[in-house]
Amino acid sequence: MVPVSYYLAVSGILFTIGAMGVLIRRNALVVFMSVELMLNAGNLAFVAFARMHNTFSGQLFVFFVMTVAAAEVAVGLALIVAIFRTKNSINVDQLSSLKG
Amino acid sequence: MNWDLIVFLVLAVVSVASAVGMLTSRNGIYAALFLVMNFMTVALFYLTLGAPFIALSQVTVYAGAIMVLFLFVVMLLGAEKLPPTKTLPYQRVTAYILGGLLLVEVAYWIWRGALTEMISPPPASANLSASIQAMSMTLFQDYLLPFEVTSVLLLVAMIGAIVLTIRQKGGRS
Question: Which domains does chain B possess?
């Protein structure tokens, strides 16, 4: 028997670590991984609430979030590859110019 | 002693530790592998919450497909380690302060919500096909339109990825 708030606490901690990763890391790929971590934390909260209310809607939202995450990763990694080809770097500090 | 709580605490420690490992590791490959470990522990959380289908799709979609894609790109670009560059001053301190504020805020709202409802792991019979059947009934009856929109989204993402990475003959990029 575990209270729902414990699951929410783990979800909140994981989300905070993901946000810290976006703020601290310079490698664009690791920033992307941190975004995935935040999505995952949100999914965990969804499933915990679905279990609490005994409904399937929360689980289905997790399903949709996973699909959107897959689409986002495909397009995002393609963008990173395209950026690397033109600038030879994926350090987010060096990607400050608007002109190619 | 409460076995469910012990299992939960072990999983929580492993998932938070692997997330911190992802945050602090210098090497991009190590970060990706830590993230795989974190996804696995979250999948186990889903199992204890009585969502076997979501847990298995977490393993196949996230830990399998998405992270393999990440590892491909990390190795393709040779970008597992960036050369050290000058960073913005005060950026790290500001990030720690903002992250701490976010954590305090989340903790406050969880404390305010005071959700003391207890969750016990479902009986083993709940992990059989009945729950998956009920879930797919909900998916294909109540959420049919979002499901179809998702397929269009995946198609758009696929075309977008191809257009972004294709190299034309003679043209640039």
Answer: 3-165 (1.20.120.1200)
